[in-house]
């Protein structure tokens, strides 16, 4: 069960690295603007906000990755703390997104499903 949790956690981290790239590197590109449904003017106006938000996503991915490494190398308590912090923050961000903008429910589900599944698997692994 722990191995499955770590695989899903890794997928969540990879997704958040991808979100980082979109928000902090390619924010004003036509493809990223299409994903977020923005005009070129909106993208230029929000570029610095997106840059900052992208780095938050990267940091969550790094914390989660560190938790995966710690758990895989036997530092279970440290690994669990890092995993719950990273994955819990990812899930909380998805909840904030859907609560604050109902029209972003699809994005929130995409952002929050992997962290939720990983957390459930970690909880199950810790009780078995």
Automatic annotation (TrEMBL):
<feature type="transmembrane region" description="Helical">
    <location>
        <begin position="107"/>
        <end position="125"/>
    </location>
</feature>
<dbReference type="InterPro" id="IPR009732">
    <property type="entry name" value="DUF1304"/>
</dbReference>
<feature type="transmembrane region" description="Helical">
    <location>
        <begin position="6"/>
        <end position="28"/>
    </location>
</feature>
<feature type="transmembrane region" description="Helical">
    <location>
        <begin position="55"/>
        <end position="75"/>
    </location>
</feature>
<dbReference type="Pfam" id="PF06993">
    <property type="entry name" value="DUF1304"/>
</dbReference>
<keyword id="KW-1133">Transmembrane helix</keyword>
<feature type="transmembrane region" description="Helical">
    <location>
        <begin position="81"/>
        <end position="100"/>
    </location>
</feature>
<protein>
    <submittedName>
        <fullName>Epimerase</fullName>
    </submittedName>
</protein>
<keyword id="KW-0472">Membrane</keyword>
<keyword id="KW-0812">Transmembrane</keyword>
